[in-house]
Design brief:
By secondary structure, the chain is α+β, with helices and mostly antiparallel strands. It folds into two domains: 156 residues, Beta Complex (Metal Binding Protein, Guanine Nucleotide Exchange Factor, Chain A); 149 residues, Peptide Methionine Sulfoxide Reductase, Chain A (2-Layer Sandwich). It has nine helices and 17 strands.
Length: 339
């Protein structure tokens, strides 16, 4: 007859084995699933920061270091920015990379700052996290590698995104200071995004590019879903640029140069609404500039047909699978046609 303590030992070992098996199954089924959200670092021009943990420990507060570089989590409802609603930009507390905008912050009632969209997908990277015996998508700063929090898909429509981020991983910059200090973001669709990304990446002042899907209704779509034309998304390129080097108007004019904006729902041999010409503006200033340039080009006589480029408000951007990122540089071959 087994004694009580022996039964407890056997029960404990059984639970431990079950836990290990559950984590193993999660690792088997979810390994690399976050990788499809990551852009390739090949060809990147954004400078990575490589410091030792000791260096970061000297520069950061104990709580910031614990969260950012020991993957800690602050207690719910205790963070500085959980109930904070001033207008501005949230930066990485370690390296100052722009992460989120105040207009994308909302109350998810979970106890941590929540955002429905990132400042720019180029500034984030994603990793599979199986630490709690379940699969979660860890969000890190792409420049310094600091742990920020996690990405879920239980957020508000239309994106469904829920960036659940630790306050300790961020610092806040008021909008009055952010306007002149930070890079900016633009989102364009001009047909097959492989060639479009490459051409934008060669422009001086464009700091980084990432390809993905924008302008549709299906949250977190796959490439195969977008190809059907049923998601409403266009193959798009999101880029981060330095306004001190190149203006948004110059980028819009470049956009009209690198494809045929008179082709409806196609570019060259690529046919479908996912290959449409579109400018997704991030604010009213971008909208005014895009409409002005489009109108000027239409009356200029440069194009014999009507320009059908869609000018629509930016709502969400879903990063395409990793093999699409920097495709031209990886394949070392000709870019697909854009006109």
């Amino acid at each position: 007859m087994l004694k009580t303590y022996q039964k407890m030992v056997i029960l404990g070992l059984s639970l431990l084995l079950a836990w290990a098996g559950w984590k193993g199954l999660n690792a088997l089924f979810y390994r690399g699933s976050a990788a499809c959200l990551n852009q390739s670092v090949e060809g990147t021009r954004m400078k990575k920061i490589n410091k030792s943990l000791e260096d970061w420990k000297k520069e950061l507060s104990p709580e910031q270091f614990r969260v950012l570089f020991q993957k800690g989590t602050e207690p719910a409802f205790t963070g500085q920015y959980n109930d904070f609603w001033e207008e501005g930009i949230y930066l990485c507390a370690a390296c100052g990379t722009p992460l989120f905008r105040s207009e994308d912050k909302y109350d998810h009632r979970t106890g941590w700052p929540s955002f429905k969209e990132s400042f720019a997908e180029t500034n984030l990277e994603y990793h599979d996290d199986l630490a709690l015996g379940m699969h979660r998508i860890e969000v890190r700063c792409a420049i310094c590698g600091g742990h920020l929090g996690h990405l879920f898909y239980d957020g508000p429509a239309p994106s469904g995104k829920h960036f659940c981020i630790n306050s300790a991983a961020m610092k806040f910059l008021p909008v009055s200071q952010a306007e002149n200090q930070l890079p900016r973001v633009a989102t364009f669709a001009a047909g097959c995004f492989w060639g479009v990304e490459y051409k934008f990446s060669q422009i001086e002042g464009v700091l980084e590019t990432v390809v993905g899907y924008s302008g549709g209704k299906t949250p977190n779509p796959t490439y195969r879903q977008v190809l059907t034309g049923k998601t409403g998304h266009a193959e798009a390129v999101q880029l981060v640029y330095d306004p001190k080097i190149i203006s948004y108007e110059q980028l819009v004019r470049k956009f009209f140069e690198l494809h045929d904006p008179t082709q409806y729902h196609r570019q060259g041999p690529d046919v479908g609404p996912n290959y449409r010409s579109a400018i997704f503006y991030h604010d009213q200033e971008q909208k005014i500039i895009a409409e002005k340039v489009k109108s000027e080009l239409q009356v200029s006589g440069r194009f014999q047909k009507k320009i059908v480029t869609e000018i629509a408000p930016f709502k969400s951007f879903y990063r395409a699978e990793e093999y699409h990122q920097k495709y031209y540089q990886k394949k070392l071959g000709p870019a697909c046609p854009t006109g």
